[in-house]
Amino acid sequence: MVETFGQVLCFDLLPLGGALPRWQAGAHIDLFLGDGLVRQYSLCGDPADVSRYRLAVLLEAESRGGSRAVHRLVTPGTRLRIAPPRNLFPLSAGARHSVLIGGGIGITPLIAMAYELHDRGEAFTLHYVARDTVFAPVLAQSPFADAVRIHDRGDAATPRFAPGSALASGYDPNETHVYVCGPIGLMDAVADAASQAGVPQANVHREAFSALPVAGGGSFEVLAAKSGVRVRVGAEEAITTALARGGVRITVSCEQGICGTCVVNLLEGDADHRDEYLTEDERTDQIALCCSRAHSPLLVIDA
């Protein structure tokens, strides 16, 4: 299946031989798109269907090559190399009620979550917030359609999405889990509303499709301890770019602080973390080099 909904390309990947690895809702796969280009996309089908992987890719106006390559390459019969599913955004066990909130293309991993929760017979509500609600017809035909709430921001007559109202479920906040994926502004608003509603911070789960921008702040220096290379990172430059200029090649993939490929140990310095991959505990001694910056004049890394 290959279908286009507006600027979103939806398609199924079928195995050439053998069986596809099983996966759980929230997982993503790497697509190898040629010329060293690797991008991560969430699986948005039913995890119980092990015959195929379903993906949906938005053609980004400011694409760095990934979405453009997918839209150019993918046609019926196209062969693609992928990596096995990885899950950095799993469902938690033991929730009495789950609130799923997807902004724009961020709805994709939450569709898989809705399938899994529906199959488990667990209570949940799925909120879809978008200016172009291309997935609305798909959701209307799903087995969990009664649990879906559409918030069409492209319709002036539709009330603006209110995270607080979405969380007013009548369930005990301590037994409620919230999952949000989409623009950072939406995720921050949902996290604030969850806190005000009494939902424990540990019960709020988020996944971004982009990190905070690399630009901003002054320049600083990075010392790659193993290589003995010291470089200056410009105010508009990624650490990985500056290191490459000095001969230190750091493996990168998403280049947005989401996949963790470029994470290295941080030996010294105060990092300005802008990724969506590391936990707060991990940030004490690790750094994602593709997007993070520095609060101190010098960072010393294990590279």
UniProtKB/TrEMBL annotation:
Show the coiled coil region(s): none
Q: Give the UniProt keywords, A-Z.
A: 2Fe-2S, Flavoprotein, Iron, Iron-sulfur, Metal-binding, Oxidoreductase
Going by the entry's taxonomy, the superkingdom of the source organism is recorded as Bacteria
User: What are the FAD-binding FR-type domain coordinates in residue numbering?
Assistant: 1-92
Leader sequence segment = none
Give GO terms: molecular function aspect only.
Answer: 2 iron, 2 sulfur cluster binding; metal ion binding; oxidoreductase activity
Q: What is this protein called?
A: Oxidoreductase
Q: InterPro entries under this entry?
A: 2Fe-2S_ferredoxin-like_sf (IPR036010), 2Fe-2S_ferredoxin-type (IPR001041), 2Fe2S_fd_BS (IPR006058), Beta-grasp_dom_sf (IPR012675), FAD-bd_FR_type (IPR017927), FNR_nucleotide-bd (IPR039261), MRET (IPR050415), Riboflavin_synthase-like_b-brl (IPR017938)
2Fe-2S ferredoxin-type domain: which residues?
218-303
Query: Lipid biosynthesis: is it a keyword of this entry?
Result: no
Q: Which Pfam families match?
A: Fer2
